[in-house]
Specification:
Elements lengths: L6 E8 L6 H11 L3 E12 L4 E6 L2 H12 L6 E4 L5 H12 L6 E3 L14 H11 L5 E2 L3 H7 L6 H10 L4 E4 L8 E8 L4 E7 L8 H14 L4 H17 L15 H5 L2
Parallel strand pairs: 1-2, 1-4, 4-5, 5-6
Antiparallel strand pairs: 2-3, 7-8, 8-9
Length: 264
Amino acid sequence: MRDPKPTVMCFSGLDPTGGAGIQADVETLFALGCHATPIITCLTTQNTENALNVRAVDADLMRDQALTVIGDMPVHAFKIGLLSAAESIMAIHAVISEHPDIPVVVDPVFAAGGGFEFSATDIREMLRSLLVPMSTVLTPNLIELTRLMPSSDSADSAVTELLSTGCKHVLVTGTHDETESVENRLYSAGGEISNQIWPRLSGSYHGSGCTLAAAISGYLSLGMEVKEAVRQAQDFTWQSLKHSFCPGSGQSIPDRAYWNRRNR
């Protein structure tokens, strides 16, 4: 019997289009040779244009699912995505607090691409106080960074405050910036800043942030150092977006299976 794949526990919402959320996590991790254990945080009504509704899964059920899986198999990384209730955040905090040596990737999802708001201000504040300090890598885009730290007067000062909470690394993605290329900037608690520039792709994508965060967690579970995991995850995400497809009338969906076809 061959050695098992590294396991990533994913706390994410269910997107019925299959473009974002838990399916994006599972597809990404499968492509990277990892095993995903999916814990669904909320159910959504949405299409490729916008979300219409969100309903949180019972927090006790989520916690019991996670602890039952962890009691049966080793988990090598946690990936946290859409959270729509304070109880969900507290339940996840209780789980990951018992495993401080497992890397944690947090993707702060606050709104759908079409503008629907998934979380209220108190949810963002609780995320900042309970999960950000435990994160190995936090992956906000510029809009999410502003909403996570509304009192900061610049991206740099916002990141400095986040790192001061105990967060080890913050990857700020520049997809929402109005620049010719996309600049993603990785800030580390030790003061190091590294940039990566990617050609800006035309169009809009459903599940790009989920893909990036899941890929980072996958590479961390494979034993990579953070900086290299982040670099390779950006490459995986960019290739998935470049080869995206558009099954609906809204955003395109990343083709995460492209990675497997490319490497045959």
